[in-house]
Specification:
By secondary structure, the protein is of the alpha+beta class. Helix content is 22%, strand content 29%.
Length: 160
């Protein structure tokens, strides 16, 4: 005899709006926060990084390492990019807009201030041939690999 199965989701007892499922999202957020706290920076540093530091992608191919960073709301003149000891540093400042007299904010969620983000590179790069561009709030840095880094393959002998 085949047993009929039904999902509890969507039934009047459990719907996406019930406190049970909202609690699940709250638990997931709390769990993620605790994981970050146990293995990384302090909660304050995490919040600061999340709200001020740019999010980055680092992509590597045979010839280059490319770093792309989202930095909306910042002028190009307020961004500094440096390579120091194998780490690409992106620094900048999102300046707060002048608030008008006589206006009360109902909500203010945008973050302002200085940031510094270091990205460790996976290999040596040609320091004299690095290119950077900034368009529509996206910084793109292309770092050519050195000849040695492009050819580097290490064979590892397995012991019996």
């Amino acid at each position: 005899m085949a047993r009929e199965t039904t999902s509890l989701i969507g039934s009047p007892l459990i719907s996406p709006r019930t406190p049970l499922l909202r609690g699940r999202d709250l638990f997931r957020d709390y769990s993620r926060m605790m994981d970050n706290w146990l293995r990384g920076p302090t909660i304050l540093e995490s919040m600061e990084e999340e709200f001020v530091s740019p999010r980055v992608d680092v992509v590597e191919d045979e010839k280059t390492v490319e770093v792309t960073a989202d930095i909306p709301g910042i002028d190009e003149k307020d961004i500094k990019v440096e390579l120091r000891n194998g780490t690409l540093w992106i620094e900048g400042e999102r300046k707060e807009e002048k608030k008008s007299e006589g206006r009360n904010f109902f909500r203010s969620e945008r973050s302002y201030g200085s940031f510094e983000r270091g990205i460790g590179l996976p290999c040596d790069v040609e320091k004299g041939n690095i290119e950077a561009s900034f368009k529509n709030g996206v910084l793109r840095v292309v770092l050519p690999k050195t000849k040695e880094a492009r050819e580097e393959v290490t064979s590892i002998k397995i012991k019996h």
